[in-house]
Amino acid sequence: MEVKTLCLGALALGDATGYEIKKMFEDGVFGHFLEASYGSIYPALTKLTEDGLLTCTTQEQDGKPDKKIYSITPEGSAALSERLGEPVSEDKFRSDFLFVMVFAHFLPKAAVSRLIDDKIAGFQAEAEKLSSETGTIGTPGAEFIRRYGQTIMRASAECLEANRHLIEGPLPGQEKKEPAESLA
Amino acid sequence: MEVKTLCLGALALGDATGYEIKKMFEDGVFGHFLEASYGSIYPALTKLTEDGLLTCTTQEQDGKPDKKIYSITPEGSAALSERLGEPVSEDKFRSDFLFVMVFAHFLPKAAVSRLIDDKIAGFQAEAEKLSSETGTIGTPGAEFIRRYGQTIMRASAECLEANRHLIEGPLPGQEKKEPAESLA
DNA sequence: AACTTCATGTAACGAGTTACATGATTAT
DNA sequence: ATAATCATGTAACTCGTTACATGAAGTT
């Protein structure tokens, strides 16, 4: 999905500036499964406006550059519909972390454990973030994504915890005496 | 993670040709969370050999181009260890499908339902594939990845099925006035 | 006859990121 | 003081993909 289409979609949810669109791909719903940088958003916005798919209202500000608020036009909506109907590219899950795990025996044990701890914490934080976002965008689609994201993040964290012994070796508590993990 | 590192990793699992390495990123364990094309693998292999991180044995064949079997050198292993120790980039989950779901109301109902059906089938196929791969590579890391992948694929399929009503609207049979939001 | 598998390699092209340029305001 | 937020925009660069070139053997 090219950035132009993403911008069209973002603006279908309401008028926004380039800066705000970027935020939607950072913190907003989109942030969990898409990304876009200023370097791609601003040129896309310019191009879409030239093509009549957006209109732009400039709002003067003092100190800061003028705020350029973009709105989607009927042609823009039509274009979005069309692109949405085209076959979507496959979901892509890229993980350098998993690659490292395959070669965990190349690294010191403590480093591997830290990597796993951090990853689990990351998943939990992401799940947390998603649940706190409830109601940010009122659409069913957004709610769907929140639930989806939470499910995956929780499943990931649990699965990692349940199977970390495969890469770390058996837990100290399981190979000898009582578990030493008392910190809760 | 750049392709050079990926090749180094692939060859740490055993000698291989460029062609075979490509297969590992298509069908093998790596295929589920990484990708690389011939256009990046072959140049990477050449570069790594020049740098002394790999050695190359040419095996003549009739008809086909000579087979070039690469092996990792001690320096290559050292380089791999080093790169594995460097901070890994964040996991990236990119999904055009989810983007489309946010704007499902732009599409005909039947098209949306088909998209969802296909996606669920895809997740199930992927889970299936992962479970059939048991034992392909004997390492704990590979086993870990299989379990991880299966968990995620199954969770995805189930979650999609459980929440599809959010984007498709309530099921014909459930269309009543009762509070239908139970979350489970 | 046509397609897939095996097998390597290069050049053009694409799409987006990174870093830079600019600068006021507010928070730490 | 220092950093972050707000706000837009461009140019260079990176990295990789796509498509091409070549070609035999086996399969449908």
Could you name the key traits of this structure?
184 residues, homodimer, mainly alpha, DNA-binding, 58% helix
Fold and architecture overview:
The structure is a homodimer. Chain A is mainly alpha-helical. Chain A is about 60% helix and about 10% strand. Chain A has eight helices and three strands. Chain A has helices spanning about 5-10, 20-25, 40-50, 75-85, 95-100, 110-130, 140-170, 170-175; strands at about 55-60, 65-70, 90-95. The first copy, chain A, has a two-stranded antiparallel ribbon with strand order 1-2. In chain A, strand 1 and strand 2 (about 65-70) form a beta hairpin. In chain A, helix 1 packs across helix 4 (about 75-85), helix 2 (about 20-25) packs across helix 3 and helix 6 (about 110-130) runs antiparallel to helix 7. The longest helix of chain A is centred in the last third of the chain and has 29 residues, at about 140-170. The first copy, chain A, is elongated. The relative contact order of chain A is 0.10. Chains A and B meet through helix 1, helix 4, strand 3, helix 5 and helix 7 of A and helix 1, helix 4, strand 3, helix 5 and helix 7 of B. Strand 3 (about 90-95) of chain A pairs antiparallel with strand 3 (about 90-95) of chain B.
